[in-house]
Design goal:
Oligomer: single chain
Order of helices and strands: EEEEEEEEHEEEE
Strand content: 35-45%
Low-confidence stretches: none
Largest sheet: 4 strands, antiparallel
Mean pLDDT: 88
Structural class: mainly beta
Radius of gyration: 20 Å
């Protein structure tokens, strides 16, 4: 019996790089930064060029959970959601952000906005931001989300 449709693989799909021998083999996140693909597999961040050359980024991002990544044009920021910690990478190294603002209060859901990395302070109505086009933090760079607008009396 003939069929009206045939299931076929998409042409041209093939494995470009194999990261199965990388630490832990668990894919935790992918991110495109400055026209290169970054893959966090296990605790190892790898940079994959357009020519499919894999370079291991120095440093480690512990854990097994998926991460969220964003960037400010100069650095990638990785967020570990289970413990609300941030890591930064310049493409050559990766390390935890150890500023007391982040380590004491935690940081969640980082996003890039007009030159700033903005992130929530977990379990509060506050959010913080970095310096413009930098990963510097200032204790005064904090705001609070309001639930309802003020109404005139």
């Amino acid at each position: 019996m003939k069929s009206d449709a045939i299931l076929r693989r998409s042409p041209g799909i093939r494995t470009a790089v194999d990261l199965t021998d990388v630490d832990g083999d668990t894919g935790r996140g992918l991110y495109n930064f400055n026209d290169e693909l970054y893959a966090l597999v296990g605790g190892t961040l790898s940079k994959i060029s357009a020519n499919h050359v894999v370079t291991t980024v120095t440093g480690d991002v512990p854990g097994a959970e998926r991460v969220t990544m964003t960037d400010n044009g100069d650095n990638i920021v990785l967020w570990r959601p289970f413990n609300d910690t941030l890591y930064e990478s310049d493409g050559a190294t990766v390390a935890q952000i150890t500023d007391p603002i982040v380590t004491d209060e935690g940081a969640a859901s980082p996003v890039f906005l007009d030159g700033y990395i903005v992130f929530r302070v977990p379990e509060t109505d506050q959010f913080r931001n970095t310096g413009i086009n930098a990963l510097t933090l200032d204790g005064l760079d904090v705001a609070s989300a309001e639930g309802a607008p003020l109404t005139p009396s």
